[in-house]
Write a structure and sequence with these properties.
- The chain has about 300 residues and is an alpha/beta fold.
- It contains 13 helices and 7 strands.
- Strand 6, helix 7 and strand 7 form a beta-alpha-beta unit.
- It is elongated and about 65 Å long.
Length: about 300
């Protein structure tokens, strides 16, 4: 989990600006690697509780004071708040030359840190490809977690070493590819949560007492198969071209969960297109299936 001695950055004082679910976990992980968290900023009660749980005895400070205390600053605020935060910190003179400025946004590379870079900061974009709970379990989950890394070439080794010290695996992402990289993760992970939650609601409506227990093995196998085989892992009525079954699904969803119809049709259409392209869905069966989906979309 730790970098080799020759690639380790010097032991650093660490500050966190934005005690959401990510920042305290990363700081706690850096602490395990020998760095020293010295300051954290947080506004909401939940942020204060997270900081106290994951970074006990680390004082709460205003953002400018966090920067004054730390060699390495983790900017762990929502994506839309990041540009304004960086600009504000730079304008107030809070940024120090030689200070490592690290943000954890998947959307942005290092260009968003330009105001701080002009003030002498060293910019790094380190995005953990992980969903966070805001609890100590997050620190454990960082072991083996991939990080999307973007940094100037001269800081690449330092960025990668920090990721390795947190137990992660660095994956280099070019600046211009950050939005696409982040869209891919959101498509896979965030939408998965929506789909699973919706599926559990429908199973409860159908009378299943423990939908989580029913879905666990099924979804685990589906995920494993998809990661191993991609589109070849597709199964189910759409991939088979069972137009009648799909029509029955749409009818039942309209009756019991009309809000789920649009999502079902969109995913079924995408699944049909991919199944056709990969030779899983027979063309002679696709016409009726696509007709059912078109009919459902036009209602």
């Amino acid at each position: 989990m730790n970098a080799q001695p020759e690639t380790r950055p010097a032991r650093l004082t660490v500050g966190v600006v934005g005690a959401g679910r990510v920042g305290p976990a990363l700081a706690a992980s850096l602490q395990l690697a020998g760095h020293r968290p010295v300051a954290v900023s947080g506004v909401s009660d939940a942020s204060v509780r997270r900081a106290a749980a994951l970074l006990p005895d680390v004082p709460l400070m205003a953002p400018a004071d966090v920067l004054a205390a730390a060699d390495l600053v983790l900017l762990t605020v929502p994506d839309d708040a990041l540009p304004g935060l960086v600009e504000g910190l730079a304008e107030t003179g809070a940024v120090r030359p030689g200070q490592l400025m690290v943000h954890t946004s998947g959307r942005y590379g290092t260009a968003v840190l330009a105001p701080a870079t002009r003030a002498g900061a060293l910019p790094l974009a380190l995005h953990p490809a992980m969903t966070f709970t805001g609890t100590s379990v997050d620190v454990q989950r960082l072991a083996g977690c991939s990080f999307g890394v973007t940094a100037p070439e001269e800081l690449r080794l330092a960025a990668e070493a920090l990721v390795i010290e947190m137990g992660g695996e660095p994956e280099w992402i070019e600046e211009e590819n950050r939005p696409l990289y982040h869209a891919a993760l959101a498509l896979g992970a965030n939408h998965l949560v929506t789909l699973v939650a919706q599926s559990m609601e429908l199973l409860r409506t159908a009378g299943v007492a423990a939908p989580d227990r029913m879905l666990g093995p099924l979804l685990g196998a589906a995920l494993d198969n998809a990661l191993r085989s991609g589109d070849a892992a597709l199964t189910g009525p759409v991939a088979r071209g069972d137009a009648g079954t799909v029509a029955a699904h749409v009818a039942e969803l309209r009756k019991h969960a009309p809000a789920a119809v649009a999502g079902y049709l969109a995913m079924a259409r995408t699944t049909a297109d991919r199944a056709l392209a990969h030779g899983l869905l027979k063309p002679e069966l696709a016409e009726d299936l696509l007709g059912v989906l078109a009919d459902g979309e036009n209602r």
